[in-house]
Amino acid sequence: MGLTSTRPLGNSGFQIPTVGVGTCPLGELFEEITEQDAQATLETAWDSGIRLYDTAPWYGRGQGEHRTGRFLYRKDRDDYVLSTKVGRRLFAPHTRKTFQTAPWQGGLAFDHVHDYTYGGILRSYEDSLQRLGINKVDILYIHDLDTGYFPNEQDLLGKLKELESGGFKALEELKAAGEIAAFGAGINEVGMINRFLDRYPLDVFLVASRYTLLEQTLYADELLRAQQQGAGIVIGGVFNSGVLATGIHDDARYDYGKLPHSVADKVRKLQTIAADFAVPLAAAALQFPLGFSAVASVLYGPSRPAEVTQNSASFQYPIPTAFWLALREQGLIAEQIPLPGLPV
């Protein structure tokens, strides 16, 4: 499996590369990143053969799209696949002098509002084209529509109603007009794939941090349903925000926060087996999701050129079948979960 290989995106008729770069870290979530480092990171990804780039208006409050666009806009548009997200509109804050960009450590000083209406989706799409400086994207994802952002059930239902009343129609029209090749939803939480599929047959789900070496709880109930209904799956957050890339250390991150003891214990077990087979843990984390045939691609989010170089090597690292079987035998991956190179 190479960096330039592709897979079909569900039943959309669209092929995408099996590995891509996510630009959330370049929006300065954890630290400020110089423009030089950001562009060098993207340049290293391109030179290594990466041709899938995912961004969003929310990443750095516009910074992620600006940086992605500044890198890609002079490339031949047929040479790469570009995805971004809809559901937020950015605007200048009313309190410019005191505005804080949190949770981003850097980013741009723009406020936002969640808007999943017909007009809101189209406005979000057009604004993204302007920030990117590129007049076409391939995939649009409905972004952050879950209980993490809408903990009140009535608020969540209200936003889902916006989609049902017009947001889905806007996405349909963009696809029918050839503006985009596919559309779907970003998923951060168990249960949301079903809630979307109950309402609309989406082309793709971008599942962040919920189908990794550490967690596969949504496989049986949700990922299989998505596959059966023709939706492709893209996996983001393959390192669970870092710990599966760095291993255990004092500042290891899990899902954007501190590492819980229960998770640390599982990581230690994974590290032990990986060491027994001389397999880098990061390589296993990158390659694991592709054992499931419905997964079209995996994304990782680099912030430095060295991370791209390391992940490119990890993605191509030869992993013996015995390693995956050992994980299953030790109860770290359930019996029904598909594994790379093994029959389902």
From TrEMBL:
Signal peptide per UniProt: none
Pfam entry (one): Aldo_ket_red
Gene3D superfamilies assigned: NADP-dependent oxidoreductase domain (3.20.20.100)
Protein origin, superkingdom: Bacteria
InterPro entries (alphabetical): AKR (IPR020471), NAD(P)_OxRdtase_dom_sf (IPR036812), NADP_OxRdtase_dom (IPR023210)
Ranges of residues in domain NADP-dependent oxidoreductase: 19-326
Protein name: Aldo/keto reductase
